[in-house]
Amino acid sequence: PAFAAISFCRLPFPYWGGRGWVDYMGCCNGKEKKGQTAEVSESTSLLEAFSRPEWTSDKEAHSCFECHQAFDVVERRHHCRRCQNIFCGNCSRFQRPVLIFKMTNSVRLCEKCYDEVPSENEFISKHLPLLQEGETFSMGQLVGSRAVFLKISSDLTRLEYRNPGKIGNREAILLHDISSVDTDGMAFRIKTSKGKTLSFVCSTEKEQANWAVAVGEASRRVRAPALKDRVEQDRRKQRDRRRLFELTATKEKRKKERTANRQRISEKYGRRATAAGH
């Protein structure tokens, strides 16, 4: 209720080299900007795909997240700067920049994040700026084709295309609705999950290849689980494994205690029986 009157807010964009802030229209009162469809509120944004996981407190980690090496005075705790989990020195010895969190210098990473960061950095530094800048294409076949200006929306949820020079009457393709992107001649084609196919004719083969890859990567990252969700899922699995390990260790300990008790009782009463026999 306190935010019912707000129709415009600004969300931080995670990459330092892009636009410092992105505008997100109609996020609070359900009203759409002119040319914006009501489906936007139901779609997933790239901002959510690159959301930062929660920082793991040192008190919560008693062993390495990967190799389970116990921490002590010698074996210190180290955070991976991408997934925010805690590792030993050996499991967090990798280093690379993490552009989605504005880390342009090499930072400490775990092996899994080290392998995933290169494609992520390429998308942030190369493909996303291309989609944000936009380009004019010829849409459709030779007969009945029209010029359109294509770019990603400011809230990073959809591709918008309209006649060049016009502000209103925009049409949009939700990123999570894109099922495939392929090339045909000098054009790249976008196929949606609803059976719709849109063809955009490029002026050069390089432009065609860059846009096909950029659109495909944006769609794939929106449809994939967000980084924050993947990390949280890994943490739940880790907690389940730890509980199972502790439960197994407790059972083994109790089993040894019962065996030792039976042995002591047997020895105690065995000696008494031997003494009584004499």
From TrEMBL:
Comp. bias (Basic and acidic residues): 227-251, 258-270
FYVE-type domain boundaries: 58-118
Family matches, as InterPro entries: FYVE-type_Zinc_Finger (IPR052113), Znf_FYVE (IPR000306), Znf_FYVE-rel (IPR017455), Znf_FYVE_PHD (IPR011011), Znf_RING/FYVE/PHD (IPR013083)
Signal peptide range in chain numbering: none
GO MF assignments: zinc ion binding
Zinc-finger among keywords: yes
Source species, domain of life: Eukaryota
Alphabetical keyword list: Metal-binding, Zinc, Zinc-finger
Zinc as UniProt keyword: yes
Disordered: annotated span: 227-278
Protein name: FYVE-type domain-containing protein
